Amino acid sequence: MKRLPGNKTTITNYKNKYPCFSEKIEAQFEIADAAMKVALTIADEEEKMKAMEKANEQATIGYINAIQGLENNLQTLNRDIKKLVDLESNEYTHKTTYLLEEANKKKTNAETLLNEVYAETDDPIQKFISCSNDLSQFKRSTDKYLREIDKTRRIQKEKKETHK
Fold it and tell me: Do both 55 and 74 map to the same domain?
């Protein structure tokens, strides 16, 4: 159950990738590490497991989870941009152009948030979460549009097959 070394690798990777957050991420890990040390001293196995689980959660809450969520949504956005760009020319509409423009604005915003240098007193976690939620909501719009295109493709294919 003890996972803090695995979390330590994740934390080290994020500290290297986003050095402006390294102190806050390290402080978060130190709290979790202290909680794990306390958990390991608990005699009752069930209580020990609960305390160890809580310590593991403490290692990644806050910055790590917020950054991971934003990164995951950014990767999804990049896949959606590729899907939109790869549409056939007869499927490309004003809505496609609008979605691509919006997607690129959202991508730039997310990348800026992740790479911005924040003052020591700043706490950008809420900004990350808000941006991540915005990307998730945008994904729903893109998914709906791509489903409409797939439906049109199916209908056109069925028409071709019935005319053979």
Answer: no
Residues 151 and 75 in one domain: yes
Q: Are residues 72 and 135 in the same domain?
A: yes
For the chain, the DSSP string reads ---HHHHHHHHHHHHHH-GGGHHHHHHHHHHHHHHHHHHHT-SSHHHHHHHHHHHHHHHHTTHHHHHHHHHHHHHHHHHHHHHHHTS-GGG--HHHHHHHHHHHHHHHHHHHHHH----TT--THHHHHHHHHHHHHHHHHHHHHHHHHHHHHHHHHHHHHHT-
pLDDT tens for the chain, 164 residues: list them.
455 556 778 888 888 888 888 888 888 889 988 999 999 999 999 999 999 989 888 888 888 889 999 999 999 999 999 999 999 999 999 999 999 999 999 999 999 998 888 777 777 888 999 999 999 999 999 999 999 999 999 999 898 888 76
Same structural domain for residues 19 and 38? yes
